[in-house]
Amino acid sequence: MGDLIAGRYELGELVGTGGMSSVYRAHDRQLERNVALKVLHERLGADDEHVSRFRHEARAVAQLSHPNVVTVIDRFEEDGRQYIVFEYVDGESLKQLLDRTGPLPVRRALEIALAVADGLAFAHEHGVVHRDVKPQNVLLSRDGEIKVTDFGIARSLDAESGLTLTGTVLGTSSYLSPEQASGLHVTPTADVYSLGVVLYELLAGEVPFPGGNQVVVALQHVNETPPSLLERRPDVPARLAAAVALALQKDPERRFDSMAAFAAELRACLADVDATDTERTMVVPPLPPPRVESAPPATRVARRPRGRMPLLAAVLGLAIVAAVVAVLVLSANGGSPQGAAGPGGSGAVSLQGVTGYDPDGTGGEHNGDAGKATDGDQATFWTTETYDSPEFGGLKPGVGLVLDAGSSVKVGILRVTTDTPGYTARIMSGDSVSGPFSDDSPSQTVGRSATFTLNGATARYYVVWITALPPGDVAHVNEVTAAG
Q: Is the whole model's pTM more than 0.70, yes or no?
């Protein structure tokens, strides 16, 4: 401490160290500001490969000017030692935050993951894959900034040789993509996988594969399915859990096709969380149903001495009996009481699954199972065929399930539950069971459940239109409910 480097950088305390280098806080005497000074370990100074990789990091990050990427200020060599000067982030690493707090609130975890995704997406657009995404390489400033750092083993997408030879395993085992662990060619989707692991850890409090040595953990990433995030933390929204599961697919082609796509889904998940939080904090005085108000008079009447029941109490009693009978009749008919408060606050809408919808295929799509999606039994389901890829083997744009409302109605909210989370769907509507149908909601990823807010069309028939299949290449619709 106190040494003057390059005639301007006064060395301060050590803030981090790794296998290749150490990072110090330093004071730039010329510009009167703190910087981060990264120094290649002296024992590696004679190793041409490590020196090349160190210099490559400076060149790679120097082209990345983004709010979520740490800025490179300078690179130089002095007395045989290699140095990189970065902006100094006054705060802590994401790893330090996790060690202090354990699992993060869902919203905070999403905010951090989204900032990291945005920074990495920018790097990918400029031809740089990080390859070592982990909490230690995410910095959180005291001012709320979130920045990705340490591109020490980053790969240029146009590189054909040198630092990124196939067969070389680089990265940290707990966050290693299967292709990295296997020494295979690395693409930007490797960072998608690693960020999926980081987000899993932010929510669950531990990585998917926490035990064993580095080789064992690497093999688990290659061969084993990660434990269910919802089992480890049930309060995680199903859509977010499905996004994490998609990012953690073993096959790079089964993940989000880009970091930008992952970021877009995380942004949508964050919007859903914000909307839910807003609904929970809204103070709307409830309007008590008439039956609740009539209960006290009925109780007082019951306490009176035996005698002739007043006319008003008798009428109320008959009304209650009639309501109970109506419920029993509807239940006996296999339905549920209609007109009760639904998810949107309006009356529930009765839908019946009537057929599959496969306009670009032949022979239908499990038409005989359509009714299982509205039978009130979560264990039964309508299912698609099994295809060779999430995009239906390139054969068609999608398939769907047709639901009949019985007459033209305006559905405000439609909720889908499934035991095959991870598929993409939207709702369409029309006036004929065979179509044509028009889009009536935005697309979204269906987790264990998904609530679609419809655009307000009035129609008799509604279609759950599936445009991308989940892991396993087959989608189930276990139950569909709706409200006006």
A: no
